[in-house]
Structures are given as structure tokens and as C-alpha cells.
Design goal:
This protein is of the alpha/beta class and 247 residues long. It has a single domain, classed as Alpha/Beta hydrolase fold, catalytic domain (Rossmann fold, 3-Layer(aba) Sandwich), CATH 3.40.50.1820. 41% of the residues lie in helices and 19% in strands. The protein has 10 helices and 9 strands. The strands form 2 sheets. The protein has a 6-stranded parallel β-sheet with strand order 2-1-3-4-8-9, with helices on both faces. Strand 3, helix 4 and strand 4 form a beta-alpha-beta unit. Helix 2 crosses helix 10 and helix 3 packs across helix 4. The two termini are 35 Å apart.
């Protein structure tokens, strides 16, 4: 093989390798929070899919923190390089599992960003939310009082949808709020945060503190805890920004 041919071949391979190493992240994994399920992500998922992203939605059981983390890992094992997104309690999950090799960046939507050793319940006690409507439903599980759900969880969502969310909500095991974070993935991966200014389920001041501590790129939007439903375009745009920055 002559020298000129070898150099030409090396140049072509170099270009190919560079294009692979800078390939865009086109996968997004969405993790829902407490009192909800993955179907709430549909408006955001529809926008992302329309823009060419592969979307995976985790359906965690909300029975134990370990089970929810395991459910998310199973999706990450097959997603490929991705942006990992968590809403509300889902922020605890993505922080715990975000050290997975597939995760390129993290997006927190009205979510907890825990430090190692912190719990969701402890963070709530640090800066309590406006809502006082989380009640026991038996068997060690909690839910939002259905009558209060529309105002406390989804005040800016169409009334009929908010009422259906109230009666279809997924109860969460109370013990989960005492589960300690063992990983703070935002220390390892670039992070982004959406703070709803009228959130009644997690105090916006608490979200500002956590996002600032994590040095997350943060946007604030008028809206409720269900900001993923009321402002899907803005939420999807931040996820896409995270994907492009991770190229």
C-alpha cells in the first residue's frame, strides 16, 4: 500500500470516526413522578417524535424506590445514548440512575434534584409546598385527595383532563419518601431544569435551591406541577436543547 493511499484512507477514517463521536443524541427517556403514570408525557413525546427523536417512556410501579430505579435501568439498557428526563419524584429516580452509561444529560421537570443522603420527604419538609392534600389510601400508600387534585396538581390543565387524572392517579408507597439518594448524577452529567412558578406540589423556592446547587441550566414558566401537560412545547424545547448540547 503506497503512502499516498494510506494517508487518504486515514483521512477518510478520521472523518468517519469524528462524525460518530459527534453524532447527535436522538433518544429521550421520560420518567413520570408520583401520583401519575407515563401517559401524561404524551404531548411532550408527540413533539419529540415529530422532531425525529426516539422516545422511551418508563412505567415505574411506585411500590419501592428500588423497583422504580430498576424499571428505569431496564429502559436505559436498551435506549442507546439518551437524554434522561424526570418529573417530580421522577427527579429522585433520574438522579439515582443517571450515572448509567447511556445517559448523556439530565432534564428535571418540576422535580427533586437530591444530594446523596437526601430524601424526597426531607426536601419537602425543608421548604414545604402549598398543597396539603396528600392523604393515605391504605396499605401504606398515598395519593392526592381527588377533590383537591385539579387545583393542587393540575390547575392550568383543562378541567376534564385534571379530573380524570385525579381518579386515575397511581398511589405511591409512603416509604418511598424516606428513601435516601445514593447517587447525585447531576454532579457527573450536564443538567437542565424546568421550574413552574405556580407549583403547589413542590415549592418553587425549593426547586430554585436544588437547581442552583446542581448548576442546572434553568427556565421558569408560568404553570402548575403538571407543566409537562400545560407547556409541552417549552418542555420539549429544553429537552431538545439538552440533546443537541450532548452531541
Amino acid at each position: 500500500m503506497n503512502t499516498r493511499y494510506t494517508l487518504a484512507l486515514m483521512a477518510v477514517l478520521g472523518i468517519a470516526l469524528a462524525s460518530v463521536s459527534h453524532a447527535a443524541v436522538t433518544n429521550v427517556v421520560l420518567v413520570h413522578g408520583a401520583f401519575a403514570d407515563g401517559s401524561g408525557w404524551k404531548p411532550v413525546a408527540d413533539i419529540l417524535k415529530e422532531h425525529g427523536y426516539n422516545v422511551f417512556v418508563v412505567q415505574e410501579p411506585e411500590t419501592t424506590f428500588a423497583a422504580d430505579v430498576a424499571a428505569t435501568r431496564l429502559v436505559l439498557d436498551r435506549s442507546g445514548p439518551c437524554v434522561l428526563v424526570g418529573h417530580s419524584y421522577g427527579g429522585m429516580i433520574v438522579s439515582e440512575v443517571g450515572d448509567h452509561a447511556a445517559v448523556r444529560s439530565l432534564v428535571y421537570v418540576a422535580a427533586f434534584l437530591p444530594e446523596v443522603g437526601e430524601t424526597a420527604g426531607g426536601l419537602q419538609n425543608r421548604t414545604p409546598p402549598a398543597a396539603k392534600s396528600v392523604v393515605p389510601v391504605g396499605g401504606g400508600f398515598l395519593q392526592v385527595n381527588p377533590e383537591a387534585f385539579p387545583a393542587d396538581f393540575a390547575a392550568d390543565v383543562p378541567k376534564g383532563l385534571a379530573q380524570f387524572m385525579a381518579i386515575s392517579q397511581v398511589p405511591i408507597a409512603a416509604e418511598i419518601f424516606g428513601a435516601k439518594a445514593t447517587v447525585a448524577a447531576w454532579k457527573q452529567k450536564r443538567s437542565y431544569s424546568v421550574i413552574p412558578q405556580q407549583d403547589r406540589m413542590i415549592n418553587p423556592e425549593l426547586m430554585r435551591f436544588m437547581s442552583s446547587r446542581a448548576k442546572s441550566e434553568t427556565i421558569e414558566l408560568p404553570g402548575s406541577h403538571a407543566i409537562f401537560l400545560s407547556r409541552p412545547k417549552e418542555v420539549a424545547a429544553l429537552i431538545e436543547k439538552a440533546a443537541k448540547a450532548a452531541e
